[in-house]
Amino acid sequence: MRTRTLIKDLAAREDGPVTLGGWVEKLRDQKRIQFIILRDETGSAQVTYPRPTIDDAPDENDALAAKVSTLTNGSFVWITGRLVHDERVKLGGLEIQLDDVEIVTLADPETPIADDTSIDKRMDWRFLDLRRPEMNLVFRIQTTIEATWRKYWVENGFVELHTPKLMASASESNAELFKLEYFEGNAYLAQSPQFYKQMAMMSGLGRIFEIGPVFRADPSFTSRHATEFVSVDIEVSWIDSHEDIMAIQEQLMHAAISAVKEQHGEEILKHFGIEVQVPSIPFPRVTLHDAIDIIKERGHTVERGGDLDPEGERQIAAWAEETHGHEFVFVTDYPATVRPFYHMRHADNPALTNSYDLIWRGTEITTGAQREHRLDVLTEQVKQKGLEPEGLQTYLDFFKYGAPTHGGFGMGLLRVLMLLLHQPNIREVGFLFRGPNRLEP
Q1: Which residues contact 54 (CB under 8 A, 6 or more apart)?
Q2: pLDDT of residue 173 exceeding 60
Q3: CB proximity list for 49: less than 8 A, separation 6 or greater
Q4: What CATH class has 7-105?
Q5: What average pLDDT score do residues 310-331 get?
Q6: Between β-strands 207-215 and 159-160, what pairing exists: parallel, antiparallel or unpaired?
Q7: d(CA 387, CA 381)
Q8: Tens of pLDDT along 117-130?
Q9: Integer Cα distance of 395 and 375 in angstroms
């Protein structure tokens, strides 16, 4: 196997022979010199080949020049040549003087997308769209975020779980279930790992996390919804209230954004024009009741019964920025009417729950809560929601043999990336989007 040098490592190498593998980003086939801009997964470099001359005219029979002339944008090639550091070269202050090019595959010269192509068309050709350097950066940022969270979890005694994605019954709402044939019966794609996270608490695991896919049969066409997405979940035992979960979440966000700024801040500024803002701890907190009043004072009336609409989320975020100088705000104490049956009610006001949403720059990224751990209370709350306890018997059985106080959250990974990079749509920052009218590629 030949030794391949990555473009990011060229600056640290001394002048001399080098072998690169990548794709042709651009070809300038001039009369006396040929330029190839070669890109790999780490960056771009300039490759040059001065055409040999005969009597001060280009040698029309030069085989290497002829081969270079056949290259098309997007072709994958091996390049062998000599590295030369030259500060006059705008692209990285270095170039590769070409000795040979091996064509792995030639690309069709007619590319189906361009920089100004619509997002829907770019989704059709996502593998080409992902060749953009800013998209390479997105996935390195995502890797940094997940690695930072995992580091925090491991250092704080969390255990990683991989919960089933095929379920016999609903974990949230029957209206959002994907139903499929399963041997002689039916199964459902998991909307959430919620029930299994709670089962882990009854198992005595204490603290768990999962990063995995979830599925929602939601016919929404908004900038932040998908039918399949990556959910970031935790569940923690021995908490006193949802405040304990909020404290963990703000620590996770602070750590992740700090790591992103340190490792990728300059590149984010270059490619996205964004200076990453590391949030201070603690994040501002406001009850839903007070948030609705604040939003009304700002000129918008929340019409939903006990929840914030998108404009309400934008307004309370603007308030947090103006009042606290903060991009994040926790909205707490949602009414039981809009929360699942397993959210714990307030001890002094059963109309409210020990729950929260985390809003970042006007968009909700997380729902979290303390869970109800008392079987008799939980069963009654199931009935109050118009559900039949018999249909949730497997779940309720978790609580028969002792249950600690516990709580957790679920967070959308792509929403985090979208908001961090100030992008208009989660489709811009995901690998492959799945929505009501998108199942390919």
Answers
A1: none
A2: no
A3: 33, 34, 36, 64, 65, 68, 97, 98
A4: mainly beta
A5: 97
A6: parallel
A7: 9
A8: 999 999 999 999 99
A9: 10
DSSP per position, 85-141: E-TT-TTTTEEEEEEEEEEEEPPPSS-S--TT--HHHHHHTHHHHTTSHHHHHHHHH
Token pair 């908490």 is at which residue?
Answer: 239
CA distance 339 to 382: 12
CA 240 vs CA 354, 378, 405: distances in Å: 10, 18, 7
Nearest CA-CA partner of 357 in 251, 258, 255, 283: 283
Q: Which of 337, 302, 295, 334 has its CA nearest to residue 317?
A: 295
Give the residue-averaged pLDDT of 275-295. 97
Return the CATH architecture of domain 127-428.
2-Layer Sandwich (3.30)
Q: Phi, psi at residue 175, to the nearest 5°?
A: -70, -20
DSSP, collapsed to helix, strand or coil, labels residue 427 as helix
Measured CA to CA, the distance from residue 125 to residue 288 in angstroms comes to 42
CA distance 322 to 242: 26
Which residues, in sequence order, are CB contacts of 222 under 8 Å at separation 6+? none
- Domain residue ranges in the chain: 7-105, 127-428
Mean pLDDT of 194-201: 97
Residue with tokens 């949602």: 334
Cα separation, 213 vs 118, in Å, equals 27
Contact 363, 354 (CB under 8 A): no
At 302, give phi and psi (nearest 5°): -80, 115
CA 170, distance to chain mean position in Å, is 25
CB 360 within 8 A of CB 317: yes
User: Helix (H, G, I), strand (E, B), or coil: what is residue 31?
Assistant: coil
Interatomic CA distance for residues 393 and 389, integer angstroms: 6
Q: What are phi and psi of 415, to 5 degrees?
A: -65, -40
Q: Is 115 exposed, middle or buried (0-12, 13-18, 19+ CB in 10 A)?
A: exposed
Q: Give the residue carrying structure tokens 């869970």.
A: 371
Distance CA 417, CA 139 (A): 9
- The residues with which 433 forms a beta bridge, in sequence order, are none
pTM over 0.90? The answer is yes
**Residue 231 burial (CB < 10 Å; 0-12/13-18/19+)?**
buried
DSSP string, 331-367: EE--BGGGS-TTBPBPSS-TTBBSEEEEEETTEEEEE
Q: How many CB atoms lie within 10 A of CB 259?
A: 18
What is the phi/psi pair of residue 119, to 5°?
A: -60, -40
